Amino acid sequence: MTGFSSLFDGGARALLTDPAVWQAVYDTLTTSFLGMIAAVILGGGFALLLTLFNVRGKTALGFLFMLPTMIPPQVTALSWIGMTGPSSALLKAIGLAPPLGSPQPLYSIGGIALLYGVQNAPLVFLSLRAGLLALPRDGVEAARLSGASSWQVLKDIILPLSLPGFVAGAAIAFVSCVGNFGIPAILGIPASIYTLPTLIYSKFAAFGPNTFADVSLLSGLIAILSVIGLTVEDRVLRGRDYRVIGLSGQVAMFRLGNWRLLGELVLWLAIFITLVMPLTALIASSLAPAYGVPLTPATATLDAYREVLFKQTITRTAFFNSVTLSLTTAIGLLVVTVLTGYYLVRSKSRVAPVVSALAEIPYALPGIVLAVALILVFAAPIPIIGISIYGTIWIILVAYFSSFFAVSLKPVVSAFRQLDPSLEEAARLSGAGFGRRLIDIVVPLVAPAAGASVILVFLIACNELTVSAILWSAGTQTLGVAIYNLDDSGSFNLAAALSVLVVIMVIAMMLVLELMAKRLPKGVVPWRS
Amino acid sequence: ADLVVYTSQPNADAQATIDGFKAANPGVDVEWVRDGTPQIMAKLNAEIAAGNPVADVLLIADTVTFERMKAAGQLLAYKSPEAKNFDASLYDADGYYYSTKLITTGIMYNTQAAMKPTSWADLAKPEAKGLVTMPSPVASGAALIHAQTLAGVDGLGWDYYKDLKANGAVAAGGNGGVLKAVASGEKAYGVVVDYMPIREKAKGAPVEFVFPKEGVSAVTEPAAILSSTKHQDNAKKFIDYLLSENGQKIAAGLGYIPARNGIALPAGYPAREEIKLLPLNAADALKNSEKDVKTFSDIFGTKG
Amino acid sequence: MAKLILNRLSKAFEAGGRPAVNDVSLEVRDGGFLALLGPSGCGKTTVLRMIAGFEQPTDGSILLGDRVLADASDMVAPEHRNMAMVFQSYALWPHMSVADNVGYPLKVRGISGQKREQKIREALNAVRLEAYADRRPADLSGGQRQRVALARCLVTEPDVVLLDEPLANLDRHLRQEMEETFREFHARSGATMIYVTHDQAEAMALATDVAVMSEGRLLQVASPQEIYARPEGRLVGGLVGQGAILKWPAALLENRLLDWDMLQQSLSHTDGQDCADILVRPQDVEIAGEGMAATVTSVLFEGERYALKLALGDEQNLRAFSRQPVQVGDRVSIVIRSAWRL
Amino acid sequence: MAKLILNRLSKAFEAGGRPAVNDVSLEVRDGGFLALLGPSGCGKTTVLRMIAGFEQPTDGSILLGDRVLADASDMVAPEHRNMAMVFQSYALWPHMSVADNVGYPLKVRGISGQKREQKIREALNAVRLEAYADRRPADLSGGQRQRVALARCLVTEPDVVLLDEPLANLDRHLRQEMEETFREFHARSGATMIYVTHDQAEAMALATDVAVMSEGRLLQVASPQEIYARPEGRLVGGLVGQGAILKWPAALLENRLLDWDMLQQSLSHTDGQDCADILVRPQDVEIAGEGMAATVTSVLFEGERYALKLALGDEQNLRAFSRQPVQVGDRVSIVIRSAWRL
Ligand SMILES: Nc1ncnc2c1ncn2[C@@H]1O[C@H](COP(=O)(O)OP(=O)(O)OP(=O)(O)O)[C@@H](O)[C@H]1O
Ligand SMILES: Nc1ncnc2c1ncn2[C@@H]1O[C@H](COP(=O)(O)OP(=O)(O)OP(=O)(O)O)[C@@H](O)[C@H]1O
Ligand SMILES: [Fe+3]
Ligand SMILES: [Mg+2]
Ligand SMILES: [Mg+2]
């Protein structure tokens, strides 16, 4: 981050008096806030229904719900546009397709927020779910016996007690909306809605002498926005006690009775809209010979797959890079975040909140800014050891570590907040030193959160675009870059085919996890109940 | 690596170019990085700011950028022996950069569209109301050149853009987005670079491309050597290769209008003489680029 | 209100596994006060949890009057049962203050303002926690937490009150006060109360009926006096009171309640055959000049008195009390004033 | 091993607030067995937590031999103290099976394989949970959980064992067995044991020393017999045993241990002035033909006997036992066989 200080010089006044900037701040805030609400409703709803209620097919629902994160945001955006636009096969089929050139309803603040919500719902889902699993069953039961209806129990007991997880999820969702580029780029620009990241991007496009200064100023605004978000989070959580007293490990189950069918319908409908629709669109475009060609058995072709799989050498490199990068980041970060999280929650030091705020900022910064900062820092060889990591995969790894630190940290911190301290005390008295305790007691106890953290980071990193877009060089392409580049250069079907392959790969990896589930601590695999 | 190339050519095209170069110069290990012009420039500028640019050769969309770099002393002058086969307007007299191809910007339309446009003026007609999309100069180098070119044409000018805006045209994103919008029928007409719709049409997409009768603007995707290069010889070889007959044929094979004289145009294009290029003064364009972006943005309400 | 009926209630946690509760039938009359006794793990909590509606019976049913609360297929939700419970683990809500914890059942019932304050204050008064109203449960001692749970349970007017070892973590004085509170609450509200405890004295002192369970089964239900004086079978005999069970020649034991004469006579008629189990409580064993010989094998000071273990000649063991200190290894003579044939 | 010394130990949770533990000085000799008694919330758990190293004293120090374990500025980490504790809330690890919970202290000490298995089995045997080795704590009953915590505490060879109401949730029989286990463990390992309990009989029966606390202060430390027979002050007198404290004319009470004659004499010399507090235990109150008049105000069946509350003429209350049922309101004559001037 040292590079940033060098970025701050001059031009600030001009920029700060530009009404366009303030309009962008406003739009960023509204879209992100609404997007967060949407993510909370969608992800929170799933988490609640799947962990607390007796709906059927939980495993399948949980499994499928994770997948939309894996579809690149631009693809999701495009498929939604396709679905709601004049060429929508769906709308055409029911005769409701709008005429050629009708305004696209998604090109709006609401549309952006909606897609933010869809994209970030799994973040809330995973984070909240970990919190819910830590709830002691008897607390819920006591409330029900007090006469509280399911709704009241939810409102008075479950949500307040799982508030750390809930708020953590909402906070990551908010911050990642603030930093999102793909969705406002596709949905916002046509409607002249600029968010700070798209504004920054356009600054880079018209590269001038003031660009670095302008961009750092805008980045500063983003940082301020996310710090404001975090302060709100901190306020909400401050001064309360979430430490579970007594034994957790069993989750109270509500019966839905007659509502069950309705609940299940809603869940599957949500899966259909957030997953099946964009995925179908994705598969359709991967099979189409060219964009806009109607897909029929006659026109369908596997050429795109052939090209991606066998001709483009970049595919294999990208798969290899992304998977190793994502796994390394996810697991490496877990180690870091468990330690940091432990420190943040247990330490009474005043430095702690500052550390946690600092951790959050890189995630909110648009990738392009972070990447440029890293280049400024690392392009020259590192002073003492004299090695340059610029141009190697290591710089991307460094970028991922700093960028996803917050994603990894949040669920873990919230789980620590709920931990009954006496569990750790008992381990200490057993003679277990810090490391020992961490491995044997603390980490398994926060397993659902740790699992959520690893999976979240993996999913996001696997698809990461903006950071690696600037930092990659020959041989270090990532999947996100590969897909984006294919798409950007007009090879839409190749991009779609590669995306489909990525989704398949993720499903395969999730299945492997599913097979290993029995050997992992309880709650790690988020779709299992 | 013996040579590092930063380019904004599409992946497959970049790969083909590099492969061709390698075939002509065996033993040279080339690394290349492909991204959109803005990203490439962000990356490069950051590297320069950090004092360690990695690239040797730059192969990106427009002369304007190169003019700026030349002024900043970031380019290396090199007189290529191949230059004699090129129109003098297509390379820098001092040898700082060489155009490699012509990418024109014209009009594409969806085959379902009611009106078949033949001129820029058609897009401002009531038939096209709300149906026009174009790339934004903030996202595409070609789009900026295009806007600056049309702005200088009598009878069009910035008023033309105001008319377009009044007619409900939108300006957003890059050329890829325009292509998708028109191919999918979301919009009927698009202002777009030539090779995209021509290629897609060949693959069966329901689109047509026209060279409007007033003429088209063009970017030339020039190549240049960075003054900081550590592989001067290879870089020069690369420039020579791009300009060579062989290199130019490969460009044509990929669907671009080659810059070198005497090479046949790819399928789907009219004869070279029929393509009327609108004039543009590169020096003015450079001087005014920020102002022009702002003018455009003010008209279309885009920011930046 | 109405009778609470458990009808052949069973619960197995794993399908096919050993049931935690096995075919328990029981009626608690309206306004009754039932104490549930039994060794650790015998299924007491599980019975309470089924009554409260947290576990579904695998078999049998639970009725309140003629309303079926639960059977193997259907269940009234806990929130519609108007019951209250003190959980063995307290189940306090860590995010609420003590006052909010206690007031929550009122809040849910829509009672607010002055009246709620008033009731919370009364309940906290009853458990001597007035001064702690604003604390968080995490900052309380174990016994204080338990008292918060008690206060929360008694703050409303439930039809049925379920108490799962509600006084286990309290000292004797508080315990007596709390027992008093229960008694008053019971008298005032007329609620049906079911009380799980390990402290028999507590059970006897509070309950109108005592039920004894073992390994998921109900062994005996009777009034405290009855179950103490006339336990059925070895298990109940062993569980209620600190009695020792002896094998005794059965020849002349006609009555079930036996005195020393009968016991002695029977002893002298040993024909080596039939033996009966007799229950001898320590307070009925008197260390006297005459009587049977016994050796002291252990002596424990209990404050009020010493608790002795005595070995009889034939390797059988007996408990007794003594107000005077005795030494391990002393040989004493004892008289069994009273015994009960099981 | 060495003496455990608490030296003017204090702990206030909020700076400036009322201290939870206040100036407690105490020595537990090496291999001693100290029972800590006191009303709910008096600071017992806090003392244990400071000894274990979970709370830092705000003042004073803790020493084991000459090693300073903790003072207001510094602290040896709990993991380096070689202590074991049964937590009031059990603190079982929900993600481990019962056997793993119990075996964890062994695992940490690097004991593995056969030997570990063996030790785990023994510990589980001691708490009668052999059959539950593979269960998760969440699937156990309250008492079973407590026993797992016990087994975990006793599986290693700690220097100091801290027991926070370790038997509160067990039935009497198990309790007696567990007490036996403690006694054996104590004899075998020679560990210093500190035992918090509300059950005085338990404390008296197990401990070599009894310490009584109230409101954070240490009131008295003595052997069980001593503290029972000669409590110091109203507070200890009221806490130990179920005695009632009476105001009695002090004129002729010269001894501290008083018999009926002395009490009667003193009574007849009432000159309305000086009154002394005397402690009268229920077992010392005999319902007899002659003596003082009293009215029965409450009768509780306790199994073995009835516990009575008696009102004396001057509105003072007394407790007594009776083996025969008595009615509330009965007027009886009582003799106080023995009393203790506080
Ligand atoms: N974390 C805390 N913050 C503030 N006060 C506390 C905290 N923990 C305990 N206390 C208070 O300190 C006092 C002593 O508590 P402690 O737990 O030591 O009592 P105890 O003697 O163990 O009682 P019990 O028999 O009920 O378990 C109590 O009044 C309690 O409310
Ligand atoms: N969730 C569960 N899954 C499997 N077995 C269980 C579960 N809960 C309890 N059990 C078992 O059922 C039996 C009865 O348990 P319950 O909690 O009813 O005992 P209890 O009588 O309340 O004992 P305690 O006095 O120790 O609290 C025990 O053996 C226990 O191990
Ligand atoms: Fe470009
Ligand atoms: Mg129980
Ligand atoms: Mg305590």
Automatic annotation (TrEMBL), chain A:
Keywords, in A-Z order: Cell inner membrane, Cell membrane, Membrane, Transmembrane, Transmembrane helix, Transport
Primary localization class, coarse? membrane
InterPro entries cross-referenced by the UniProt entry: MetI-like, MetI-like_sf
Where does the record place the ABC transmembrane type-1 domain?
25-233, 319-513
What subcellular compartments does it reside in?
Cell inner membrane; Cell membrane
Q: Which Gene3D superfamilies match?
A: MetI-like
Supply the Pfam families for this chain.
Answer: BPD_transp_1
Q: Is Methyltransferase tagged as a keyword?
A: no
Transmembrane spans: 33-53, 60-81, 106-128, 181-200, 212-232, 265-284, 319-343, 363-382, 389-409, 441-462, 469-486, 492-513
Asked whether the keyword Nucleus is assigned, the reply is: no
Which membrane topology term applies here? Multi-pass membrane protein
The organism's place on the tree of life at top rank: Bacteria
Q: Which PANTHER family match?
A: FE(3+)-TRANSPORT SYSTEM PERMEASE PROTEIN FBPB 2, INNER MEMBRANE ABC TRANSPORTER PERMEASE PROTEIN YDCV
As for family, the record states:
Belongs to the binding-protein-dependent transport system permease family.
Q: What is this protein called?
A: Iron(III) transport system permease protein
From TrEMBL, chains C, D:
**What terms describe the molecular function in GO for this protein?**
ATP binding
**Is the keyword Transport assigned to this protein?**
yes
Protein name, entry field: Iron(III) transport system ATP-binding protein
Which Gene3D superfamilies does the entry mention? Answer: P-loop containing nucleotide triphosphate hydrolases
Q: Does the entry feature the keyword Membrane, yes or no?
A: yes
Annotated ABC transporter domain ranges read: 4-240
Q: What is the superkingdom listed in this entry's lineage?
A: Bacteria
| Membrane-spanning segments | none
Keywords of the record: ATP-binding, Cell membrane, Ion transport, Iron, Iron transport, Membrane, Nucleotide-binding, Transport
Record SUPFAM superfamilies? MOP-like, P-loop containing nucleoside triphosphate hydrolases
A single Pfam family it belongs to is: ABC_tran
